Amino acid sequence: MIARALFDSPDRPASRVARFVNLLVVLLLVSGGSYALLAQSISDWSPVWAYRASFLQGWVTTIWLSVLSLICSLIFGLIAAMARRSSFMPLRSLSVIYVELIRGTPLLVQIYFFFYVVFDKVGLDNRYIAGVLILSLFTGAYIAEMIRAGIESIPASQWESARAIGLSTQQTYRLVIFPQAFRQILPPLAGQLASLVKDSSLLSVLGLSEFTQSALQVNSATYSTLESFLPLAIGYLILTLPISLAAKKLEALFRYEA
Amino acid sequence: MKLEFKNVEKSFGPHRVIRDISLSVEFSHVLCLIGPSGGGKSTLLRMLAGLEPLSSGEIYLDDTRQPSDEVSLRHFRKRLGVVFQAYNLFPHLSALENVVLPLVEVHRLSRDDANKRARSVLERLRLEKEEAKRPSALSGGQKQRVAIARALAIHPEMLLFDEPTSALDPEMTAEVLDVIAELKKEDRKFVMVTHEMGFARQIADVVAFIAEGKVLEIADAPSFFESPKSEEAKLFLSKILKY
Fold it and tell me: Residues with Cβ < 8 Å from B158, sequence gap 6 or more?
């Protein structure tokens, strides 16, 4: 009886009720534990509550920074992935160098380097545009590798079939390769996009008044660290959880056996 | 239908798969390419389909030379319908969409006309109930019939079959061979690589026997199967007919 209530395996699947109760109990235990741990440390919400507008404004800034970076990073990733597959060798090398340099160095270093060295030279001094560009370059390198792997996972017979019916290369990508590769890419892509939202917190070092920056300011004004950073964690979760859920929905939608 | 090869060679690295083939065949409907595995039959068919670049030589189809640059080759391929051993359907599209895709994207039919034509071809191949299914939901025989429908729907000048039943069990093989036999009755012209000797004997007008990268014998089907001339063909047929 206890085994039926606690265990779930393919040959002895648990009921929906048992699964729901399990989730609920664990959720309660985790939140209870967290409360026991933190209750002592949290003294007073009122100083932080006074800054709620600042939090909200930072949170909204983080949302549109993330959305813009998300779009740009997909574009950068697609360009780099296609450059990597180009028959023109200099382009291919350039793509490899971009991907390896970005993936091999810390985002913080890239933020300082691009903003204070590169963008300074070209006269780009809007911190928000700079932030979006840096974050997109960073995430784009990871997305490029995912797209490349997704394209390479499509068997050669699909290319041959597309050629046999007379599709051009561009049509083959659009009608045959990308739709199939997208399904492969979706799960890691969703994870990367959730990371992007969190990575945007590092842009606070440029003094952008985004979500993390507001928490830092509230913290230095009120000296209530936990009360400043707990809402921060929750605010990011509100953004990243829907991405995971949407990815699961999309995955189910695109599911078919190869 | 007239098919001509002039000094055609094909090598993969140091491996010579097709060795200086020159031939000229005329056939009313069906040409079957037979011979031992690895002898170059499929490569020959794929070269004919414009899918495998020649190392050297020329191919003529009804006295028109097969182009060698990719853009003209694409136009050349549009006139042919190819059916592969492993079906090569697009797994993300339904049976109907698989047939419609080349009609809309390559042959520039309107979506309505393409749907109409695809449905009528699927119906002729008794696939009307499967039109909404993705390839993963179809049996092997059904998949191959969808692939045949895809090749037929473009109204090709000629169909090319590359071992269309090699991946199928006997029952499904019969199901697909029935369809191919019907095509001959409908006055279609095709070239077929096959290991089904009984079928080749029954359906082929002309048989080409290919081994070790060379065409060793070309003859009308009855005379080839009753009295093969080359030693290799005799040996091949005796081995195949042993069991």
Answer: B1, B61, B79, B80, B81, B189, B190, B191
pLDDT in tens, A113-134: 999 999 889 888 888 999 999 9
Cβ neighbours of residue B134 closer than 8 Å, sequence gap 6 or more: A256, A257, B91, B92, B93, B94, B95
State how far the Cα of A63 lies from the Cα of A69, in Å rounded to an integer. Answer: 10
Q: Which residues of A touch B77 (CB under 8 A)?
A: 163-166
Using alpha carbons, select from A104, A73, A72, A66 the residue that is nearest to residue A202.
A66
For B231, residues 6+ apart whose C-beta sits below 8 A from its C-beta are none
Distance from CA of B88 to the nearest CA of A (A): 6
Contact criterion met (CB < 8 Å) for A157 and B101: no
- Closest C-alpha among B217, B103, B88 to residue B152: B103
The structure tokens listed for A95 are 């793509």
Q: Are B95 and B122 in contact (CB under 8 A)?
A: yes
The whole-model pTM stands at 0.83
- Of A188, A178, A163, A180, residue with least CA distance to A244: A188
Across the interface, whether the CB atoms of A161 and B106 are under 8 A apart is answered no
Among A232, A6, A208, which residue's Cα sits nearest to residue A126? A208
Yes or no: say if B190 and B113 are a contact pair by the CB < 8 Å rule: no
What is the value of ipTM here, to two decimals? 0.89
pLDDT single digits (tens) B37-96: 888 899 999 999 999 888 898 999 888 899 888 888 888 898 899 999 999 999 999 999
Q: With beta carbons under 8 A apart, name residues in chain B contacting A157.
A: 84, 86, 88
Check B92 against A157: CB less than 8 A apart.
Answer: no
Q: Which residues of B touch A161 (CB under 8 A)?
A: 84, 88-90
A166 to B51: CB separation less than 8 angstroms, yes or no:
no
Collect all residues of chain B within an 8 Å Cβ-Cβ radius of residue A158: 88, 90
Which residue of chain A is at minimal alpha-carbon distance from B47? Answer: A164
Question: In the numeric block, which tokens belong to residue A137?
Answer: 């370059």
Looking at chain B, which residue has its C-alpha nearest residue A168? B74
Using the beta-carbon criterion (under 8 Å), do B88 and A158 form an inter-chain contact? yes
**pLDDT-derived band at A80, boundaries 50, 70, 90:** very high
Tokens of A219: 């913290």
- Map residue A1 onto helix, strand or coil: coil
How far is A139 from A147, CA to CA, in rounded Å? Answer: 12
User: How many CA atoms lie less than 13 Å away from A125 in the CB half-sphere?
Assistant: 3
